[in-house]
Write a structure and sequence with these properties.
265 residues; mainly beta; elongated
Length: 265
């Protein structure tokens, strides 16, 4: 148990970024900010309207429901690798006009298109600065996300005969790799600007999904949708209540240590 905890801790620390300097602006204050300005429900698709908008199962993270979420600029967004990542934003009270008061809060990334490093819903913007608008200097560092008791979610964003899109949600870290196995055949998924997609062709059978989080954890979803042919846009598959670490290459007595972990790293 002690060895497992040490390995998990080391892998988690490897993905946590150093503290960086950036800026933060206020996105909007409406309750439906995440879906109100884009029919597709933001670049990361957590609240896509086709899936149910803010009622979609992938939009039920602690950060989205509490409006502690932000968009990021193009440089930080990349090809969507940042989707679902959490950052601790800290304002030190060093605004050039002396605005606001020092504060910090953890936010989750849900969209792109920000002019500042972070463009945050007013709820969390106010928690950090005690102000309602403007641009503020912030320090930011990556941290593990808190999750709801529901566990990891694989949601169907869109489906057709050959190409199916997925959104993965309620994870501690962003997804770096994903595979879909149908009737024993493995299909590699591709990250496309914020969602994951799999080209399968006309297949049917039992469907399993495996994803790898940024910290190295592997999460498995078994027998999803009651069979591949039954999947529909808005459907969701929930992970088993355990996940595993890739087997580390250790010497001596450590080489036989178990590599299974609960959801909390």
């Amino acid at each position: 148990m002690a060895v497992r905890a040490v390995v998990a801790c080391l892998l988690s620390q490897q993905v946590l970024a150093e503290t960086h300097r950036g800026s933060m602006s206020m996105w909007a204050s409406t309750h439906d900010t995440l879906v109100g300005y884009k029919s597709e429900g933001s670049a990361c698709k957590f609240a896509d309207k086709k899936m149910g908008g803010l009622e979609s199962v992938t939009a039920q993270t602690p950060y989205i429901t509490a409006k502690n979420y932000c968009a990021v600029n193009r440089g930080l967004y990349g090809n969507g690798e940042v989707c679902g990542r959490c950052y601790k934003l800290t304002y030190k009270g060093d605004h050039e006009q002396g605005l606001g008061r020092p504060g910090s809060h953890v936010v989750q990334i849900v969209d792109s298109g920000s002019w500042a490093t972070f463009d945050c819903h007013m709820t969390v913007f106010n928690k950090i600065t005690d102000y309602d608008t403007g641009f503020f200097p912030v320090d930011y560092e990556e941290v593990p996300c808190e999750t709801s008791p529901a566990g990891p979610i694989a949601g169907v964003l869109d489906d057709d005969f050959y190409w199916t899109k997925f959104v993965f949600s309620n994870l501690r870290y962003p997804v770096t790799a994903a595979t879909l196995t149908i009737n024993g055949k493995v299909h590699e998924m591709k990250l496309v600007g914020g969602y994951w997609g799999a080209w399968t062709g006309p297949v049917k059978g039992e469907a399993d999904i495996e994803i790898t989080e940024e910290n190295g954890y592997q999460v498995s979803f078994h027998n999803c949708f009651g069979g591949w042919k039954n999947r529909r846009t808005g459907d969701a598959c929930r992970a088993a209540q355990s996940r595993s670490l890739p087997q580390p290459k250790l010497r001596g007595s450590l080489a036989n240590a178990t590599n299974t972990s609960e959801f909390l790293p």
